Automatic annotation (TrEMBL):
It comes from Brachybacterium tyrofermentans. Residues 45-52 are annotated as: G1. Gene3D superfamilies: 3.30.300.20, P-loop containing nucleotide triphosphate hydrolases. Residues 24-34 have a biased composition (Basic and acidic residues). GTP binds at residues 45-52, 92-96, 159-162. Keywords: Cell membrane, Cytoplasm, GTP-binding, Membrane, Nucleotide-binding, Ribosome biogenesis, RNA-binding, rRNA-binding. Belongs to the TRAFAC class TrmE-Era-EngA-EngB-Septin-like GTPase superfamily. Era GTPase family. It is a peripheral membrane protein. This is GTPase Era. Residues 92-95 are annotated as: G3. PANTHER family: GTPASE ERA (PTHR42698), GTPASE ERA, MITOCHONDRIAL (PTHR42698:SF1).
Amino acid sequence: MTDDLDPTSPDAGTPAQPDAPSGPEDRSADGERATHRSGFVALVGRPNVGKSTLTNALVGEKVAITSSKPQTTRRAIRGIVTGENAQTILVDTPGVHRPRTLLGERLNDLVRETLGEVDVVGFCLPADQKIGPGDRFIAEDLVEMRTGRRGPRVIAVVTKTDLVNRDLLAQHLMAVDQLMDFDEIVPISAVKGDQIDVLLEVIAKQLPEGPQLYPDDQLTEESRDDRISELIREAALEGVREELPHSIAVVVEEVVETDPDDPFVHVEPGEGRLVVRATLFVERDSQKGIIIGKGGSRLKEVGTQARGEINHLIGRKVHLDLRVKVAKEWQRDPKQLGRLGF
Ligand SMILES: Nc1nc2c(ncn2[C@@H]2O[C@H](COP(=O)(O)OP(=O)(O)OP(=O)(O)O)[C@@H](O)[C@H]2O)c(=O)[nH]1
């Protein structure tokens, strides 16, 4: 068990209301004042159905990490899409699943909490998989939320349409229609970019009237350090199997400008070398060995991949200093979960 974890607590819950910038009045071509809409949209669904890939496609930039491993997303990540007459704040949520650890329970709770706070829900159902008990479980929750009070509007987003032919898609759309009373059903492919604009329009129509909440150029509410730690985790997830992906957590310890000749001497921003120091946590010694690899080879690969993404994010070259530590059974330990920000 490590005892030098930095306590980080990413804000993974309630949508805070940021200061509204005073934007220009929207006017349509004939001079009439156009209605401006704004609000929060949660993308929910089972793990691996394409929620994060869709979030990125809608925002037009990578604000959420994705992977072929289920249960990649662990926080409610907000992406912002600003259009002429609407601002859509997307909340990408962890996949709803049968929890096996305390972390799993907390992630499901986070999704429930998020559902209670948004204006619209995009319920993601992959076109290449039959509707199953996991989908029905989510649908029941949504139906219950709408019973007797004004719950969120619910759009069925049929994802990954590029993986099926027209006939299968038609059959799937009919099955989706039977699942619950949706306000709209929109088939999309985030990978091919099909119907992304249509979905955005459909979502915007369901939002309440309201002002722009974030500045035009803000694409996410994630902090720089949280985005960096996610990019490192994404790189570490590649090539690892079975339970290991779930055991990996990443904490950015510091991002500092240092003297190029002495990494421990800090200098003014822009005048030295930008160093990112981060720790990868795993749950067991054996996992530590896998992450580091023979002679450090795997950790080096993780560092190279993550560094490329971080350079792109920050807009300059960084030096990435990665360490690996064991935090025994952190997914089941309330104290450790707290320290890791869950
Ligand atoms: N072919 C195809 N694959 C997709 C599409 N969208 C997502 N995927 C793939 O599906 C896998 C899961 O995608 P994610 O976006 O990480 O799924 P998620 O629902 O956010 O997953 P969790 O974080 O586990 O809940 C990845 O391998 C994606 O590349 C799509 O439109 N078409």
